[in-house]
Every structure is written in C-alpha cells, then in structure tokens.
UniProtKB/TrEMBL annotation:
Top-rank lineage group of the source organism: Eukaryota
Protein species of origin: Magallana gigas
Membrane topology, record value: Single-pass type I membrane protein
Keyword Glycoprotein: yes
UniProt protein name: Ig-like domain-containing protein
GO MF annotations, alphabetized: cell adhesion molecule binding
Length: 653
C-alpha cells in the first residue's frame, strides 16, 4: 500500500481528494477528515497520483508516487536500482530487504562495501561506483522466493519507509490446479467445475493481488474461449466419455496440468432393451410350446447409476417375480403364462418396462362327454337323444372331427375348428351302434384320436333294408320243411328261446341265429314243417309277446304255358324271341328255351320269370342265315314244367 501525507490547512476540517491510478482517474471526489490517504494494492500500478484540496478551496495540490517494481522468475539474476535523495555525510548508507522481517543486506561506505561484515558476497554484487554515489544499483543472484520483497536504503532502518525503494517480485508457476465441483449431476442441467490454484510468487502481499487465468481441456484438447476459473457445462450422456483438465497461468508462467476428472451424468432409463430381439408373430407374441424354455433374453436399460433390472411373469391372477441372473431370462414356460415383463427401476423412483407377450402352444388329451357326462363308452336306449361332445383344450385351437366306423368304412359326421365339437343324435336307433372316433388335428402338434363305443339297446325288429319275403308257395309232405330267413335288427342279439312262430299249428322250431355284417344285425333262420294242406296259412314271429313279422305259406301251383311265343329275324344271322308269361307258378319259376339240332332238343337258355302277364325276350345269338330253326319254350318251377311245350319255326335272314 502507498500512504500519502500532506500538511494540514489551518482552517480546513475536511479535504477533498481524487486518485489517479496509472491513467485511470476516479470519477468523484472523496471527502476525508485526515491529512493522510492510503491507496491499496499499489503494486498493481506503475504511477499513483493524488489530487487534494481543502474543503471549499479551489486550490488543488498534487502528489505523485511511481511504483518501482522488478519482476523475475526463480533462479534468474536481477539488478535493483533507485536514486537516493542524498548520501549521508556520515558515510554510512544501509540497504535493507523487507519481506517478513526488515533486515540490512549490506552497508555502503565512502570507500567500500560490507556484506554482513565481509567484503565479498555470493548473493549480492554492488555495481555503482563510487560507493558514495546516490545512484544505488546492485545485483541479486540465485534468486528464490525468499529474495522477494521491498528493497530500500538510508542511514537508518526507519528511513526505508520514506519511499524510493524497489519491490522485487519473484514469480513462480502457479500451484498444480485441483478441479473441484459436483461431478455427478443430472443430464440437461449444468455442471460447474472449478479450477483451483494459487500463485507461488512472492511476496505474498503481491500474490493476493494476482489474478490467474485458466485454460480448460477436454480429452487433452484445449477448449477455445474458456479462460474463467469455473467451467460451466450442459450435461449430456456423452460426457461420460470426456476427461476434463485445466492449467493456471500467471503472466506467462503456466502451471502443470491438473488432475483429470470425468463428469458422471445422471439419467434415468428411456427404454428397456431386450436382446436378442425376440422373434414374434403377427400378434407381437413369441410362439413357444408348453414345457419349452424361453430365452436366454438379456434385459438392460441405459441408466446412471445403473437401474435395478428384474423380470416378472404375468398369468391370469397377476404379476410375479421370476428368477433371473444378471438380467438374463431363461425359464421354462407353462400354459398359464401370458407374458414376461422386464422392469427397469431407477434410484429416483423412475420405472419403465418392456413386455414379451407369449403365445404358449399346447394340446391336451381329448375329453369325451356323452349326454353331458364324461364317458369313454355309452349304452343308450333306442329312440332316446344322445349328445356327443369332444373337448380338446389347446392353442392354437385344433380342428376336431367326429367320425363313425373304422378303416374303409369310416364316415365323417362333423368337423369343426375350436376346442369343442358338439353333435346330437335326436333319436337313437339300433343302426347307430358302432365304433366312433374323435380326432384332433393341429398344424403344430400333428393329430391324435380316441375311440369310443355307442351301444344302442333295441328290441328285435325286421331289417327293412333287406328284401324279406313274406309270401311262400310250398308243397306239403311228411318230411318237407320250409326254410324261412328273417333279417333282424336287435341289440343285444335275441335269445332263441324268446323267439317263437305262432301259426295254424304250434310246431317245434329248428332255428339258427347268426350275426350279419353289423353287431346289431342277425339272421334268424327257421325250418317250418309243412306236413299237409292244413299247415298252410299265416305264421307270426313273436319276441316274447310282441309280433315281429308275419309270413304266409300257400300251396305251390303248376306253371301255365307261356303264350304268344313269336320270333323275328331282324338282321342277318339274328333272331328275337318273345313270349308272354302265364300266372305265377310259385317260387323258382323260370323258362327253358331249347333248339332242335336235328336229333334232340338242346337247351340254350334259362329265362327268369318276368311276372304273370309280362313279356319275356331272348336273343339266342348269331345263327346261320337262310336256315330254318325250331325253338321250344317251357314254363317250369321246382315241381314240374308245362306240357305240352310251345314251339315255333323261324327262317334266319
């Protein structure tokens, strides 16, 4: 500091002053009571001027102080010079160094110099000659920070404060900076980091006035335009990869580089990443079979600090935690599972998630419901309804088919895509008795089936699908028996003891019951004795007390001779023979056609009976043109033939 002292004015109680530092003058006058004024931080300036006047006076006085400074770096030599107001007549002039203490460093005499009692010094070398000159000049060698301070001289120690001395500033590199500040901060906000350093120059009262400049670096590259002690950064995620450092500069002396710091940007998750990317169907689902494993899927989220990653599973009742290892899901799937959810939870209660929907594919065994009850087989009464339901729980829904029979006799009854197939027989008949099959087909799981029996219980009836004859022409005789075959439908097959023929006579039955092509079809064969004419008449077949059918046995007649036996040679070598049948001659009636070969009649064909009064035709094939042929036609049954036969002659064209 520099203190200006002036002589007080006799009548002044106040003084107005104005300070000029180098070329910068204070804008306003300052009013003071004392006759002294101290200018702080004088080392910042080269010239300090004070203008002062008594309060109310127009007369100004001026005092000027030139700040004498010398600046060097540690280790450099320096010459210190000033002009003394006079050289003492005593011949003793002391040069003082004032820093932390005020001490003389050497003594000038008219004829020489003493350095602490010695004529020579390794530290100081006096330059001016003669020694008693007012031009004081000396060299300081091997400078250190301890050499910094104020150098002045005079005959006494107090005289050094009268001015005229030189301040030696020994400059050193600023201390290695240390970067301070909050390095962990939310993104999209600003982080302020400070480059903290101190001047190592001396004297310390000078360093208090020093303003250091700073240089900032990112990844060892200078950040242009950033010279402030504090660096303000808008925090982004990418800054996690940046390293920041700084240097401090005093004049042209640059410190060593600071420590390196990294911004720790804090941010929560924006999205959850699942890798590898799940392969999904058009419904955004993973298709997986029941019992197979899903994964491994790794779940991650970009968070700092890291998010807590958990996997959860959802079924029809809610969400449940599932075991995972370091965010990796590898889990066996069950049909109850609907989705997996990866949850990323951050420290500030920020939670996001990503889901993996599941399409769990499975197929269950067939459940068969007969009349709404779980069955594998069923017995039902005839003429009652039967509801058949095939249920197959599966995903994707299978195609279910209901069929009847097996092998080449299998017939489809119903087919439907879905879990249920329903089929109703409104009124069961014996003919519904069979093996049935429920079959499911799936594009994923192939196919399977279950067989079941429907057994319709029915009393014996005539099988109307068969040509059952109810009128019989038969001859009588002591040992003659009429064979009657009755096609029955019954389930279970009837007992022979429950079947009886009731007719003109109660006759013992010789019967055989055999199964036909279906389990519910039987052939009941009876041999009814026809001893004489009294045995002809109606016979009823009874099952217990119910009549199944009635047949009529009549006497068998002799055939009648055919009429209108004509011939027509319609083409070269061909003839067409025509006749009209007589009345029915009983069973096994036929017509025998013969041709005369010159010696005997040779049978050439048997013609079925077309029925009484109907026309029968016959073509004997290729004959010799121009020849005359004789044809004979007889009507026969198993008893005999008509006599005489009918004959005709024809000439072949």
């Amino acid at each position: 500091d520099v203190t200006f002292i002036w002589t007080p004015s006799p009548r002044a109680s106040f003084y107005d002053i104005k300070i000029t530092r180098d070329k910068t003058e204070d804008r306003d006058w300052i009013r003071v009571q004392e006759t002294t004024y101290t200018v702080r931080n004088s080392l910042l300036y080269d010239v300090i001027k004070i203008n002062f006047k008594a309060y109310g006076s127009m007369i100004e006085s001026t005092m000027i102080y030139k700040v004498s400074k010398a600046r060097i770096q540690i280790g450099d030599p320096v010459n210190i010079s000033w002009t003394a107001a006079f050289f003492p007549i005593t011949g003793q002039y002391y040069v003082y160094h004032t820093y932390k203490v005020n001490k003389p460093i050497f003594q000038l005499q008219n004829e020489g110099i003493l350095y602490g009692g010695h004529n020579v010094s390794n530290k100081y070398r006096y330059i001016t000659r003669p020694y008693n000159s007012v031009n004081i000049s000396f060299e300081i060698r091997h400078t250190t920070v301890d050499d910094a301070g104020y150098y002045a001289g005079g005959p006494t120690a107090d005289s050094v404060w009268s001015g005229g001395g030189v301040v030696l500033i020994v400059s050193g590199k600023p201390m290695r900076p240390n970067i301070e500040g909050n390095l962990s901060i939310m993104v999209e906000t600003f982080s302020n980091i400070t480059c903290s350093s101190k001047s190592t120059s001396a004297p310390d009262y000078y360093t208090k006035l020093v303003t250091l400049t700073y240089t900032w670096f990112v990844n060892d590259t200078e950040i242009e335009g950033e010279t402030n002690q504090t660096l303000s950064l808008k925090v982004t995620k990418g800054q996690v990869y940046n390293s920041y450092s700084c240097t401090a500069t005093e004049e042209d002396l640059v410190s060593v580089w600071s420590n390196t710091v990294q911004i720790n940007p804090l941010y929560g998750p924006k999205k959850v990443n699942i890798t590898p990317n799940p392969s999904i169907n058009k419904y955004d689902q993973i298709e997986v079979r029941d019992g197979d494993f899903v994964g491994p899927f790794n779940c991650s989220a970009d968070c700092n600090p890291p998010c807590n990653i958990t996997w959860r599973m959802k079924n029809s009742t809610g969400f449940y935690d599932v075991l995972s290892e370091t965010g990796t899901l590898f889990l066996q799937v069950g049909i109850y599972m609907e989705m997996f959810c990866c949850v990323a939870k951050w420290v500030h209660d920020t939670t996001i998630y990503e889901i993996i929907k599941l399409d769990v594919q499975y197929i269950e065994e067939i459940n068969l419901y007969l009349n709404d009850t779980l069955h594998s087989n069923v017995d039902v009464l005839e003429n009652t309804p039967l509801r058949i339901a095939c249920f197959v729980d599966g995903n994707p829904a299978p195609t279910i088919r209901l069929s009847r029979g097996q092998g080449h006799t299998e017939t489809n009854l119903e087919e439907k895509e879905g879990k249920w197939l329903n089929f109703t027989i409104e009124s069961t008949q014996c003919s519904h008795t069979d093996i049935y099959k429920c079959t499911w087909t799936s594009a994923v799981f192939g196919s399977s089936y279950v067989l079941f029996n429907i057994n319709v219980l029915c009393n014996p009836t005539i099988d109307t699908s068969e040509n059952f004859k109810t009128k019989y022409s038969f001859k009588s005789g002591f040992d003659l028996k009429l064979e009657v075959a009755v096609p029955l439908i019954a389930n279970p097959p009837p007992q022979k003891s429950n079947l009886t023929w009731v007719g003109p006579y109660t006759v013992p039955l010789n019967t055989v019951i055999s199964q036909r092509d279906e389990i519910y079809k039987q052939l009941f064969v009876s041999f009814i004795p026809v001893v004489d004419q009294t045995y002809f008449g109606n016979y009823s077949l009874q099952y217990r007390e119910s009549i199944i059918c009635t047949i009529t046995i009549i006497a068998e007649d002799v055939p009648q001779t055919p009429t209108n036996f004509t011939s027509n040679s319609y083409a070269s070598g061909y003839v067409n023979l025509t006749s009209v049948s007589g009345f029915s001659g009983g069973p096994y009636q036929l017509f025998i056609l013969s041709i005369y070969n010159g010696s005997i009649w040779e049978i050439v064909g048997n013609i079925s009976d077309p029925g009484e009064g109907n026309v029968a035709h016959f073509d004997p094939g290729l004959l010799t043109p121009g020849h005359e042929y004789a044809f004979r036609l007889e009507s026969c049954n198993r008893i005999n033939c008509t006599f005489p036969p009918i004959e005709t002659l024809v000439t072949i064209k």
